[in-house]
From TrEMBL:
<dbReference type="InterPro" id="IPR036721">
    <property type="entry name" value="RCK_C_sf"/>
</dbReference>
<feature type="transmembrane region" description="Helical">
    <location>
        <begin position="335"/>
        <end position="355"/>
    </location>
</feature>
<dbReference type="GO" id="GO:0015297">
    <property type="term" value="F:antiporter activity"/>
</dbReference>
<dbReference type="InterPro" id="IPR006037">
    <property type="entry name" value="RCK_C"/>
</dbReference>
<dbReference type="Pfam" id="PF02080">
    <property type="entry name" value="TrkA_C"/>
</dbReference>
<feature type="transmembrane region" description="Helical">
    <location>
        <begin position="214"/>
        <end position="233"/>
    </location>
</feature>
<keyword id="KW-0812">Transmembrane</keyword>
<dbReference type="InterPro" id="IPR038770">
    <property type="entry name" value="Na+/solute_symporter_sf"/>
</dbReference>
<keyword id="KW-1003">Cell membrane</keyword>
<dbReference type="Pfam" id="PF00999">
    <property type="entry name" value="Na_H_Exchanger"/>
</dbReference>
<keyword id="KW-0406">Ion transport</keyword>
<feature type="transmembrane region" description="Helical">
    <location>
        <begin position="367"/>
        <end position="387"/>
    </location>
</feature>
<feature type="transmembrane region" description="Helical">
    <location>
        <begin position="6"/>
        <end position="28"/>
    </location>
</feature>
<feature type="transmembrane region" description="Helical">
    <location>
        <begin position="188"/>
        <end position="207"/>
    </location>
</feature>
<feature type="transmembrane region" description="Helical">
    <location>
        <begin position="59"/>
        <end position="79"/>
    </location>
</feature>
<dbReference type="InterPro" id="IPR006153">
    <property type="entry name" value="Cation/H_exchanger_TM"/>
</dbReference>
<keyword id="KW-0813">Transport</keyword>
């Protein structure tokens, strides 16, 4: 490839990226995961569309798909609220393991006995279509104000269920399950998940201490350090310990996201943009890999049957068995069942049989591609309506106060940059009523593009930006206090950090 070809690729890629970024607004208004638009762009650019780009390398698609999932899981872990995920982590783990196993079994039986597919193909289709997609779940559910434990359970499940399904699809595609048996597979899944999660926790714990103690030369280096550490968690777990890198990177990101790191908001913004880039590239690439010309009516009908089997029957039974022991009300079970969105993950998993040259792998890919398109189009827009009908909306939902930290090493202090969201209960509170720890002060307020030094009687307003200076040992206590008031108002000291909300 010469410079002229590189220039052409850069021009085309930049145009596609710009169109994809603008399309995010359209997908948000329609309540659809943006993957549908990006897959459509890939189809238009592909060999069957006006772009006429020929791409059929399953090995490259497989590798790049996994790389994109690592970035998406990193962003998901960093932006997940730990206080929502922690109480429901056991439920999310059961959904990601036992729930996936039930769904795979149901779909495989329907595919074999009703559709007459070979057992290997039936199990592969069940394994590929059963996991929920982190990108789809994160992008849709964070626009729907559902109860925190519901959102936490769905996000935890989507972050953890990649590991067992990747392993299952790989073993079935290579024929290892027939050689070693299901007992071997169960033990291997348990080892990879448990050790992978522990490895991720250790890397996350070490990373937090490292980032806090090392003063980097520029604020822009902190996001790069966080992403590098997350990738080390994935690659280190996979290469060194042969455990689930997906479980490791998600847990590492959860630990990093929970910690009060320097330039936290800047890091999240950077990783959020990186995740969007990964999603756009992933979905466009998968659209290029698909070929509408080879998809027949029979494949569409099979996709419909499999979609109903996995979305209605398999998912319902999986949630019923997994959530009942945790005494989850039926309304919440119904919402969890319908909110198990499929997205890029099933399509990426479908590239594994392609890369392993499994018989009928191309047909599996086409069926999964059609299934994802049809059922994402059906499920995504219906979630706000269903949440309202099932009465699982969080009526007291308020936006989390945004706190960023900039280190002031020479003073042994930190400057907290606090933004007051429109629905935060910080609005209306006087500075003196914040009751911040001794030695902490609100040094500046930015309001309507004007700055001023506040007094004790100054009343905070929605949209204010506060600069709070705190000694480093009091930084976390100060941040907790501000979040408490944001949730519960000036009486937060009576009700605790979480205020009146139930997690």
């Amino acid at each position: 490839m010469d410079v002229e070809q590189l220039d052409q690729i850069l021009l085309g890629g930049a145009v596609v990226l710009l169109v994809a970024v603008i399309a995010v607004r359209l997908s948000g208004r329609l309540g659809l995961p943006s993957l549908l638009i990006y897959l459509g762009m890939g189809l238009l650019l592909g060999e069957s569309g006006p772009g006429h780009i020929h791409f059929e390398d399953a090995q490259i698609a497989h590798a790049l798909g996994f790389a994109a999932l690592v970035i998406i899981l990193t962003e998901g872990g960093l932006t997940t609220r730990w206080n929502e995920v922690r109480p429901v982590m056991p439920l999310g783990l059961v959904l990601a393991t036992a729930g996936v196993a039930i769904s795979v079994g149901v779909v495989a039986c329907i595919a074999h006995y009703i559709l007459g597919l070979d057992w290997q193909i039936a199990v592969l289709i069940g394994a590929v279509t059963s996991p929920t997609d982190a990108a789809a779940v994160f992008s849709v559910l964070r626009r729907v104000p559902i109860r925190p434990r519901l959102r936490g359970a769905l996000e935890a499940e989507s972050g953890l269920n990649d590991a067992p399904t990747v392993l299952l699809v790989t073993l079935v595609s290579t024929g290892a399950t027939a050689e070693h048996g299901w007992l071997y597979f169960t033990g291997l899944v348990a080892y990879e998940l448990i050790v992978g999660a522990l490895f991720g926790f250790v890397i996350g714990w070490i990373s937090v201490g490292l980032i806090r103690r090392v003063a980097l030369g520029s604020a822009g280096l902190y996001p790069l350090a966080v992403v590098s550490l997350a990738i080390i968690s994935y690659a280190g777990g996979t290469v060194l310990l042969h455990v689930s890198g997906f479980a490791a990177v998600y847990v590492t990101s959860l630990v990093l996201g929970r910690a009060e790191l320097p330039h936290r908001m800047a890091t999240r913004s950077f990783v959020d943009g990186l995740a969007w880039l990964a999603q756009i590239g992933l979905f466009v690439m998968l659209g290029l890999l698909a070929s509408p010309g080879r998809i027949g009516l029979n494949d569409v009908l099979i996709a419909l049957v499999i979609g109903i089997a996995v979305t209605v029957v398999g998912r319902f039974l999986a949630v019923l068995v997994s959530a009942t022991p945790f005494k989850v009300p039926w309304r919440e079970q119904a919402f969890i069942s319908w909110a198990g969105l499929r997205g890029a993950v099933p399509i990426v998993l479908a590239t594994i049989p392609l890369a392993e040259q499994v018989p009928q792998a191309t047909r599996i890919f086409d069926i999964v591609f059609v299934l994802v398109l049809l059922f994402t189009l059906l499920q995504g827009p219906s979630l706000p309506w269903l949440a309202k009908k099932l009465r699982v909306l969080d009526e007291n939902a308020s936006f989390e106060v945004e706190i960023d930290v900039a280190p002031l090493e020479s003073l042994g202090a930190d400057m907290l940059q606090v933004h007051v969201p429109s629905e935060s209960r910080l609005a209306g509170v006087e500075v003196g009523e914040l009751r911040l720890p001794a030695g902490v002060s609100v040094s500046l307020i930015i309001r309507d593009d004007k700055t001023f030094v506040p007094e004790r009687r100054t009343v905070l307003r929605a949209g204010d930006a506060l600069l709070v200076v705190a000694p480093s040992p009091l930084r976390e206590q100060t941040a907790r206090r501000l979040r408490a008031i944001s949730r519960a108002g000036r009486l937060a000291g009576w009700f605790g950090e979480r205020g009146r909300e139930s997690y």
